[in-house]
Protein backbone atom coordinates (compact mmCIF):
# COMPACT_ATOMS: atom_id res chain seq x y z
CA UNK A 1 0.00 0.00 0.00
CA UNK A 2 1.34 3.40 -0.96
CA UNK A 3 1.98 5.53 2.13
CA UNK A 4 0.58 8.95 1.29
CA UNK A 5 1.82 10.45 4.56
CA UNK A 6 5.45 10.67 3.40
CA UNK A 7 4.63 13.92 1.54
CA UNK A 8 3.54 15.75 4.69
CA UNK A 9 6.82 17.42 5.43
CA UNK A 10 7.32 18.72 1.91
CA UNK A 11 3.71 19.71 1.30
CA UNK A 12 2.98 23.38 2.22
CA UNK A 13 -0.76 22.82 2.49
CA UNK A 14 -0.45 19.79 4.78
CA UNK A 15 2.21 21.59 6.81
CA UNK A 16 -0.20 24.49 7.31
CA UNK A 17 -3.05 22.16 8.27
CA UNK A 18 -0.82 20.32 10.74
CA UNK A 19 -0.13 23.60 12.52
CA UNK A 20 -3.85 24.10 13.27
CA UNK A 21 -4.94 23.07 16.76
CA UNK A 22 -8.46 21.98 15.99
CA UNK A 23 -10.37 18.81 14.94
CA UNK A 24 -9.34 18.86 11.26
CA UNK A 25 -8.60 16.22 8.65
CA UNK A 26 -7.52 15.96 5.02
CA UNK A 27 -8.67 13.26 2.60
CA UNK A 28 -7.24 12.46 -0.84
CA UNK A 29 -8.84 10.56 -3.70
CA UNK A 30 -6.39 8.05 -5.18
CA UNK A 31 -6.09 7.35 -8.92
CA UNK A 32 -8.20 4.24 -8.29
CA UNK A 33 -11.03 6.49 -7.12
CA UNK A 34 -10.92 5.54 -3.45
CA UNK A 35 -10.61 7.95 -0.55
CA UNK A 36 -7.83 7.87 2.03
CA UNK A 37 -7.02 10.09 5.00
CA UNK A 38 -3.66 11.82 4.82
CA UNK A 39 -4.06 13.91 7.96
CA UNK A 40 -6.05 13.31 11.14
CA UNK A 41 -5.27 15.92 13.80
CA UNK A 42 -4.44 15.07 17.44
CA UNK A 43 -7.51 17.06 18.52
CA UNK A 44 -9.67 14.85 16.30
CA UNK A 45 -7.98 11.74 17.71
CA UNK A 46 -8.87 12.87 21.22
CA UNK A 47 -12.47 13.77 20.31
CA UNK A 48 -13.26 10.57 18.42
CA UNK A 49 -11.02 8.00 20.07
CA UNK A 50 -9.63 6.93 16.67
CA UNK A 51 -5.91 6.38 16.20
CA UNK A 52 -4.55 8.69 13.48
CA UNK A 53 -2.03 6.15 12.17
CA UNK A 54 -4.75 3.51 11.85
CA UNK A 55 -7.14 5.93 10.13
CA UNK A 56 -4.48 6.99 7.61
CA UNK A 57 -3.23 3.45 7.01
CA UNK A 58 -5.42 2.69 3.98
CA UNK A 59 -8.60 3.43 2.01
CA UNK A 60 -11.61 4.31 4.11
CA UNK A 61 -13.27 1.01 3.12
CA UNK A 62 -10.57 -0.82 5.10
CA UNK A 63 -10.71 1.54 8.08
CA UNK A 64 -14.42 1.99 8.78
CA UNK A 65 -17.44 -0.35 8.70
CA UNK A 66 -18.80 -0.74 5.16
CA UNK A 67 -22.01 1.19 5.80
CA UNK A 68 -20.17 4.12 7.39
CA UNK A 69 -17.47 4.08 4.70
CA UNK A 70 -20.10 4.18 1.94
CA UNK A 71 -21.83 7.17 3.53
CA UNK A 72 -18.71 9.27 4.11
CA UNK A 73 -17.45 8.45 0.59
CA UNK A 74 -20.71 9.90 -0.75
CA UNK A 75 -20.09 13.00 1.36
CA UNK A 76 -16.56 13.39 0.01
CA UNK A 77 -17.70 12.98 -3.59
CA UNK A 78 -20.32 15.69 -3.01
CA UNK A 79 -17.65 17.99 -1.58
CA UNK A 80 -15.41 17.50 -4.63
CA UNK A 81 -18.30 18.32 -6.96
CA UNK A 82 -19.38 21.42 -5.03
CA UNK A 83 -18.03 24.91 -5.72
CA UNK A 84 -18.75 25.91 -2.12
CA UNK A 85 -18.21 24.20 1.26
CA UNK A 86 -20.89 21.74 2.34
CA UNK A 87 -22.20 21.47 5.89
CA UNK A 88 -23.26 18.16 7.40
CA UNK A 89 -24.81 17.04 10.67
CA UNK A 90 -23.79 13.41 11.14
CA UNK A 91 -24.68 10.77 13.73
CA UNK A 92 -22.08 8.12 14.57
CA UNK A 93 -21.72 5.47 17.24
CA UNK A 94 -18.37 6.00 18.93
CA UNK A 95 -17.25 4.16 22.07
CA UNK A 96 -20.69 2.49 22.29
CA UNK A 97 -22.44 5.86 22.45
CA UNK A 98 -24.48 7.84 19.94
CA UNK A 99 -22.72 11.07 19.06
CA UNK A 100 -23.53 13.95 16.70
CA UNK A 101 -20.98 15.91 14.68
CA UNK A 102 -21.22 19.07 12.59
CA UNK A 103 -18.73 18.87 9.75
CA UNK A 104 -17.67 21.35 7.08
CA UNK A 105 -16.13 19.85 3.93
CA UNK A 106 -14.39 21.84 1.21
CA UNK A 107 -12.20 21.10 -1.77
CA UNK A 108 -8.54 21.81 -1.04
CA UNK A 109 -5.50 22.30 -3.31
CA UNK A 110 -4.67 19.09 -5.14
CA UNK A 111 -1.98 16.86 -3.70
CA UNK A 112 0.84 14.96 -5.33
CA UNK A 113 0.20 13.64 -8.84
CA UNK A 114 -2.92 15.79 -9.05
CA UNK A 115 -4.83 13.87 -6.40
CA UNK A 116 -8.07 15.63 -5.47
CA UNK A 117 -8.19 16.73 -1.85
CA UNK A 118 -10.83 17.55 0.72
CA UNK A 119 -10.27 19.35 3.99
CA UNK A 120 -12.77 18.91 6.78
CA UNK A 121 -13.33 20.56 10.14
CA UNK A 122 -15.70 18.97 12.62
CA UNK A 123 -17.02 19.51 16.13
CA UNK A 124 -19.21 17.42 18.40
CA UNK A 125 -22.75 18.75 18.85
CA UNK A 126 -24.33 15.87 20.77
CA UNK A 127 -25.43 18.13 23.65
CA UNK A 128 -26.93 20.63 21.20
CA UNK A 129 -28.91 17.87 19.47
CA UNK A 130 -30.18 16.52 22.77
CA UNK A 131 -31.32 19.98 23.88
CA UNK A 132 -32.91 20.52 20.48
CA UNK A 133 -34.86 17.26 20.78
CA UNK A 134 -36.01 18.13 24.29
CA UNK A 135 -37.19 21.55 23.14
CA UNK A 136 -39.18 20.01 20.29
CA UNK A 137 -40.76 17.54 22.69
CA UNK A 138 -41.61 20.36 25.12
CA UNK A 139 -43.07 22.38 22.25
CA UNK A 140 -45.24 19.42 21.29
CA UNK A 141 -46.50 19.25 24.90
CA UNK A 142 -47.32 22.98 24.80
CA UNK A 143 -49.19 22.60 21.51
CA UNK A 144 -51.27 19.73 22.87
CA UNK A 145 -51.99 21.68 26.06
CA UNK A 146 -52.92 24.73 23.96
CA UNK A 147 -55.44 22.68 22.01
CA UNK A 148 -56.98 21.37 25.23
CA UNK A 149 -57.26 24.94 26.54
CA UNK A 150 -58.85 25.97 23.24
CA UNK A 151 -61.49 23.27 23.58
CA UNK A 152 -62.23 24.13 27.23
CA UNK A 153 -62.33 27.87 26.52
CA UNK A 154 -64.55 27.30 23.50
CA UNK A 155 -67.07 25.33 25.54
CA UNK A 156 -66.98 27.92 28.34
CA UNK A 157 -67.52 30.82 25.96
CA UNK A 158 -70.36 28.97 24.25
CA UNK A 159 -72.02 28.34 27.63
CA UNK A 160 -71.70 32.07 28.46
CA UNK A 161 -73.19 33.15 25.15
CA UNK A 162 -76.40 31.13 25.38
CA UNK A 163 -77.87 32.85 28.51
CA UNK A 164 -77.12 36.29 27.08
CA UNK A 165 -78.89 35.39 23.85
CA UNK A 166 -81.86 34.34 25.98
CA UNK A 167 -81.80 37.75 27.74
CA UNK A 168 -82.03 39.52 24.36
CA UNK A 169 -84.86 37.27 23.28
CA UNK A 170 -86.77 37.81 26.53
CA UNK A 171 -86.38 41.60 26.37
CA UNK A 172 -87.94 41.51 22.93
CA UNK A 173 -90.90 39.53 24.30
CA UNK A 174 -91.28 41.90 27.26
CA UNK A 175 -91.20 45.00 25.05
CA UNK A 176 -94.02 43.69 22.82
CA UNK A 177 -97.05 45.75 23.86
CA UNK A 178 -95.15 47.24 26.78
CA UNK A 179 -96.52 50.63 27.93
CA UNK A 180 -94.10 52.93 29.68
CA UNK A 181 -95.73 54.57 32.68
CA UNK A 182 -93.03 57.20 32.90
CA UNK A 183 -91.00 55.42 35.57
CA UNK A 184 -88.05 54.63 33.24
CA UNK A 185 -88.59 50.85 33.17
CA UNK A 186 -88.58 50.71 29.36
CA UNK A 187 -85.18 52.43 29.34
CA UNK A 188 -83.91 49.90 31.90
CA UNK A 189 -85.10 46.97 29.74
CA UNK A 190 -83.45 48.47 26.66
CA UNK A 191 -80.27 49.02 28.64
CA UNK A 192 -80.30 45.36 29.70
CA UNK A 193 -80.73 44.31 26.05
CA UNK A 194 -77.84 46.57 24.96
CA UNK A 195 -75.58 45.19 27.67
CA UNK A 196 -76.40 41.63 26.58
CA UNK A 197 -75.71 42.49 22.94
CA UNK A 198 -72.36 44.12 23.69
CA UNK A 199 -71.43 41.19 25.91
CA UNK A 200 -72.19 38.74 23.09
CA UNK A 201 -70.05 40.83 20.72
CA UNK A 202 -67.21 40.74 23.24
CA UNK A 203 -67.61 36.98 23.70
CA UNK A 204 -67.55 36.45 19.92
CA UNK A 205 -64.30 38.40 19.73
CA UNK A 206 -62.87 36.35 22.60
CA UNK A 207 -63.96 33.16 20.87
CA UNK A 208 -62.18 34.21 17.69
CA UNK A 209 -58.96 34.90 19.58
CA UNK A 210 -59.15 31.64 21.54
CA UNK A 211 -59.73 29.49 18.47
CA UNK A 212 -57.14 31.18 16.28
CA UNK A 213 -53.91 29.23 15.70
CA UNK A 214 -50.95 31.15 17.09
CA UNK A 215 -48.47 28.33 16.47
CA UNK A 216 -45.31 28.93 14.50
CA UNK A 217 -45.43 28.22 10.76
CA UNK A 218 -44.49 24.70 9.73
CA UNK A 219 -40.77 24.25 9.07
CA UNK A 220 -39.60 22.93 5.73
CA UNK A 221 -36.05 21.69 6.24
CA UNK A 222 -34.30 20.07 3.30
CA UNK A 223 -33.36 16.56 4.39
CA UNK A 224 -31.33 13.96 2.53
CA UNK A 225 -33.35 10.88 3.48
CA UNK A 226 -30.66 8.50 2.26
CA UNK A 227 -28.04 10.09 4.51
CA UNK A 228 -30.41 10.17 7.50
CA UNK A 229 -31.33 6.51 7.07
CA UNK A 230 -27.68 5.51 6.63
CA UNK A 231 -26.68 7.42 9.78
CA UNK A 232 -29.40 5.75 11.82
CA UNK A 233 -28.71 2.31 10.34
CA UNK A 234 -25.11 2.64 11.51
CA UNK A 235 -26.34 3.47 15.02
CA UNK A 236 -29.03 0.82 15.43
CA UNK A 237 -27.36 -2.02 13.47
CA UNK A 238 -23.60 -1.42 13.84
CA UNK A 239 -22.79 -5.07 13.16
CA UNK A 240 -24.71 -5.00 9.87
CA UNK A 241 -26.70 -8.09 10.82
CA UNK A 242 -29.62 -6.91 8.68
CA UNK A 243 -30.17 -5.83 5.11
CA UNK A 244 -31.73 -2.37 5.26
CA UNK A 245 -33.04 -0.64 2.15
CA UNK A 246 -33.87 3.04 1.98
CA UNK A 247 -34.55 5.56 -0.79
CA UNK A 248 -32.19 8.12 -2.27
CA UNK A 249 -34.59 11.02 -1.94
CA UNK A 250 -34.61 14.53 -0.55
CA UNK A 251 -37.69 15.62 1.40
CA UNK A 252 -38.89 18.94 2.76
CA UNK A 253 -40.30 18.61 6.27
CA UNK A 254 -39.42 19.26 9.92
CA UNK A 255 -35.95 17.72 10.31
CA UNK A 256 -36.17 17.04 14.05
CA UNK A 257 -39.58 15.38 13.91
CA UNK A 258 -38.56 13.28 10.89
CA UNK A 259 -35.28 12.17 12.45
CA UNK A 260 -36.88 11.30 15.80
CA UNK A 261 -39.64 9.34 14.05
CA UNK A 262 -37.23 7.52 11.75
CA UNK A 263 -34.82 6.72 14.59
CA UNK A 264 -37.50 5.24 16.83
CA UNK A 265 -39.22 3.21 14.12
CA UNK A 266 -35.92 1.84 12.75
CA UNK A 267 -34.69 1.00 16.25
CA UNK A 268 -37.93 -0.85 16.93
CA UNK A 269 -37.70 -2.71 13.60
CA UNK A 270 -34.09 -3.78 14.26
CA UNK A 271 -35.18 -5.23 17.57
CA UNK A 272 -37.59 -7.67 15.91
CA UNK A 273 -36.45 -8.10 12.28
CA UNK A 274 -35.02 -11.44 11.22
CA UNK A 275 -33.01 -10.29 8.20
CA UNK A 276 -34.67 -7.41 6.33
CA UNK A 277 -35.95 -3.86 6.90
CA UNK A 278 -37.41 -1.76 4.08
CA UNK A 279 -38.00 1.99 4.34
CA UNK A 280 -40.13 3.80 1.77
CA UNK A 281 -41.47 7.33 1.33
CA UNK A 282 -44.63 8.48 -0.45
CA UNK A 283 -46.33 11.84 -0.77
CA UNK A 284 -49.79 13.27 -1.21
CA UNK A 285 -49.24 16.39 -3.36
CA UNK A 286 -52.77 17.61 -2.69
CA UNK A 287 -52.69 17.32 1.11
CA UNK A 288 -48.96 18.28 1.13
CA UNK A 289 -48.06 15.34 3.34
CA UNK A 290 -45.44 12.61 3.21
CA UNK A 291 -45.82 9.06 4.51
CA UNK A 292 -42.79 7.26 5.88
CA UNK A 293 -43.14 3.46 6.06
CA UNK A 294 -40.79 1.17 8.01
CA UNK A 295 -41.35 -2.54 7.28
CA UNK A 296 -39.63 -5.53 8.91
CA UNK A 297 -39.80 -9.31 8.52
CA UNK A 298 -40.09 -10.07 12.24
CA UNK A 299 -42.96 -11.83 14.02
CA UNK A 300 -45.19 -8.74 14.03
CA UNK A 301 -47.24 -7.40 16.92
CA UNK A 302 -49.60 -9.71 18.80
CA UNK A 303 -53.08 -9.56 17.26
CA UNK A 304 -54.58 -8.65 20.63
CA UNK A 305 -52.40 -5.53 20.95
CA UNK A 306 -52.92 -2.18 19.25
CA UNK A 307 -49.48 -0.54 19.63
CA UNK A 308 -50.74 2.91 18.64
CA UNK A 309 -53.60 2.87 21.15
CA UNK A 310 -51.17 1.60 23.78
CA UNK A 311 -48.79 4.45 22.98
CA UNK A 312 -51.62 6.99 23.21
CA UNK A 313 -52.51 5.76 26.71
CA UNK A 314 -48.92 5.71 27.95
CA UNK A 315 -47.93 8.27 30.57
CA UNK A 316 -44.63 10.09 30.87
CA UNK A 317 -42.69 7.30 32.56
CA UNK A 318 -44.40 4.38 30.85
CA UNK A 319 -42.54 2.11 28.49
CA UNK A 320 -44.18 1.31 25.20
CA UNK A 321 -41.95 0.06 22.42
CA UNK A 322 -39.08 2.37 21.50
CA UNK A 323 -40.48 5.80 22.25
CA UNK A 324 -43.80 5.43 20.42
CA UNK A 325 -45.61 7.73 22.90
CA UNK A 326 -43.08 10.49 22.18
CA UNK A 327 -43.26 9.95 18.42
CA UNK A 328 -47.06 9.97 18.50
CA UNK A 329 -46.99 13.23 20.45
CA UNK A 330 -44.53 14.87 18.05
CA UNK A 331 -46.50 13.81 14.98
CA UNK A 332 -49.82 14.96 16.43
CA UNK A 333 -48.30 18.34 17.29
CA UNK A 334 -47.56 18.79 13.56
CA UNK A 335 -51.00 17.59 12.47
CA UNK A 336 -49.55 14.18 11.54
CA UNK A 337 -50.37 10.62 12.56
CA UNK A 338 -48.87 7.22 13.26
CA UNK A 339 -50.45 3.93 12.19
CA UNK A 340 -49.66 0.23 12.39
CA UNK A 341 -50.44 -2.30 9.66
CA UNK A 342 -50.25 -6.06 10.01
CA UNK A 343 -48.58 -7.60 6.97
CA UNK A 344 -50.77 -10.11 5.17
CA UNK A 345 -48.33 -11.36 2.54
CA UNK A 346 -45.66 -12.48 5.02
CA UNK A 347 -44.69 -12.13 8.71
CA UNK A 348 -43.67 -8.74 9.91
CA UNK A 349 -44.92 -5.29 10.81
CA UNK A 350 -45.38 -1.97 9.04
CA UNK A 351 -45.40 1.34 10.88
CA UNK A 352 -46.44 4.40 8.89
CA UNK A 353 -45.88 7.97 9.95
CA UNK A 354 -47.66 10.78 8.13
CA UNK A 355 -46.55 14.38 8.56
CA UNK A 356 -46.64 17.64 6.59
CA UNK A 357 -44.02 17.79 3.87
CA UNK A 358 -43.20 16.96 0.29
CA UNK A 359 -40.66 15.05 -1.74
CA UNK A 360 -38.09 17.40 -3.25
CA UNK A 361 -36.07 14.99 -5.37
CA UNK A 362 -36.60 11.45 -6.57
CA UNK A 363 -34.10 8.70 -7.25
CA UNK A 364 -33.88 4.92 -7.20
CA UNK A 365 -33.87 3.03 -3.86
CA UNK A 366 -30.48 2.19 -2.41
CA UNK A 367 -29.58 -0.91 -0.43
CA UNK A 368 -27.20 -0.84 2.50
CA UNK A 369 -24.25 -3.17 2.66
UniProtKB/TrEMBL annotation:
Molecular function via GO: phosphorelay response regulator activity; protein histidine kinase activity; protein kinase activator activity
Enzyme class: transferase
Keyword hit for Kinase: yes
EC number: 2.7.13.3
Kinase is among the record's keywords: yes
Recorded superkingdom: Bacteria
The reaction(s) this protein catalyses: ATP + protein L-histidine = ADP + protein N-phospho-L-histidine
Biological processes per GO annotation: osmosensory signaling via phosphorelay pathway
Histidine kinase domain mapped to chain residues: 155-359
Pfam family, one: PAS_4
Keyword entries, A-Z: Kinase, Transferase
Protein name stated in the entry: histidine kinase
Organism for this UniProt entry: Palleronia pontilimi
Amino acid sequence: MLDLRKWRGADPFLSAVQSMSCPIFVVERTPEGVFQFVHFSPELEKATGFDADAVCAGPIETVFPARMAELIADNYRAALESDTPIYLDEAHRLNDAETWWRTVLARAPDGAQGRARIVGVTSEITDVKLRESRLVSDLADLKMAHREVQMLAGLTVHDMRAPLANVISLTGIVLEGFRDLGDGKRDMILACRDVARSSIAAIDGMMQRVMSDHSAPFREDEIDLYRSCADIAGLVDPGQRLTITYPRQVVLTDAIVLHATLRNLMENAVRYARSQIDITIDEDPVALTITLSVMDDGPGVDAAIDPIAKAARAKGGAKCGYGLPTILKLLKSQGGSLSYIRRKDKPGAIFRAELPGRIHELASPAKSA
